[in-house]
Amino acid sequence: MNRYIINGGKPLHGEVVIGGAKNAALGIIAGAILTDEPVTIENLPDVSDINVLLDAIEGIGATVERIDSHKVVICGKTISSVVVNSEVIQKIRASYYLLGALVGKKGRAQVAMPGGCEIGARPIDQHLKGLRALGVKCDENEDENCIYANVTNLHGNGIFLDVASVGATINIMLAAVLAKGTTTIENAAKEPHIVDVANFLNSMGARIKGAGTDVIRIYGAESLHGTEYSIIPDQIEAGTFMCAVAAAKGDVTLRNVIPRHLEAISSKLEEIGVTVEELDSGTDVRIVADPQTRLGASTVRTRVYPGFPTDMQPQITVVLMLGSGNSTVTENIFENRFRYVEELRKMGADIAVKDNTTAKIRGVESVHGADIEVPDLRAGAALTIAALAAGGKTVLDRIDYIERGYEDFDGKLRGIGADIRKETIV
User: Fold this and answer.
1) Which of 230, 255, 270 is the last residue of a domain?
2) What confidence score (pLDDT) does residue 116 get?
3) Domain count of the chain?
4) Do residues 104 and 34 lie in contact, with contact meaning Cβ atoms separated by under 8 Å?
5) From the candidates 117, 138, 146, 243, which is the catalytic residue?
6) Does residue 105 share a domain with residue 250?
C-alpha cells in the first residue's frame, strides 16, 4: 500500500502536460478487439484501470504490444475465449465494455460484474436494456458475480435510455457497430469521451452519426478494419489541476487540453476570482490564482455534459472550502459522493452534508494538515488538493484509488512546486 506525504502551503508554478482521457481510453480499448486487424492507440494514459483492461483482453487471447507507456498495438484476431471473470477485472467499472465488444465480435460473452469506486448506485440496467433491444439474451448470475450474454441474430433497433448513461451509450455503440440494420440511441450521453469512442470506431469503418448529441444513429457495418488513433486529452485531469492551482494559488499552464471541454469548470473558477486564459496555441490554458486574494463563493450543481461534471465535484468543493462566504454544492448524479467531507473536516473544513446530496460550505481562511484516507478516485484527488493548500503536513493513505485514474499525479505536482512524495507502507 502506498501513501502521500504532503507539506502544504506552497503556491504552484510551471507547466503540466495533460494525458489522454481515461474514460475514452477504456471504451476505445474494448472497441479495438472488434476487428481482426491491428489497432494502434496513442496518447494512452498509464493508469491502473487501463492496465487492468489491457491485461483482461490479453487474458482472452488478444495480442497486446506495449510500444511505450502511452502507445499500444492491439489485435483481436487471436481471441480464443469470451470469459472475462477475474478478481482483478472486477475492481474496475469498465469491465462491462467487454460485454458489448465480445457480443459484437463473437456473439457471446461471460463478463464479471463491474466494480469501481463506491460513490453510489451505478446499475447496469440501461446497458442490458440496450443489448436486449439488439437481440442479445442477457442473464445475471449473482452466485458467479458475472453476466452471461449470447445472440444469434444481432440486429439494429431503436433504444431510449431512461437516463443519459455514458457507460450504456458506449456499450450499445460497441455492440451495434456490427449489428445488421440501423440502431438509434435516444437520450444518449453527450460527453467528450462518447464522441471520441465514436470517432475511433468510425476510423475503423463503423458508421456512427450524431455522437455528441442526444440522438446517435449507428448503421451496422459488415466488418471493421485496423486503424491508428490518438485519444483526446483528459478533461477531468485538466480540471483537477485547475482546482489545485485555485486552492493552493499560483500560476500554471496546462498543455494538451481542449478548452471547449473545460468550459463548465473554467466558468465556475472565473466566477469566484480565478483567472483562466486560453492561449493562442488553442491547446493550452493558463490558470492564475493570486496568493494575496481570497476567492469568492458560488453555487455548483453537477449535471450531465455540458453541465458541471460529477467527477469534478470533490475538487471544486475543496476550492470553495477556502473561499469567502457560503457556498452550496449539489450532487445530482451519484448519491454517495460526499464521503470525503469527513476527511476535510479533520483538516478544519466547515462543511455540512444534507441527505447525501447537498454540501453547505462555510468558507474558512485556512486548513491544517492531518492524517486522512482516500475513499474513492476523485475524492483522492480532491484531498490531495486540500493537502497542498493546508498548513503543515498531511499523510494521505489509500492512494491506490488515485492511481486508478491519474498518471504520475505526485510527479506532475512536484514538477510545479508541490512538496509531495509517495511512500510505500511495508
Assistant:
1) 230
2) 57
3) 2
4) yes
5) 117
6) no
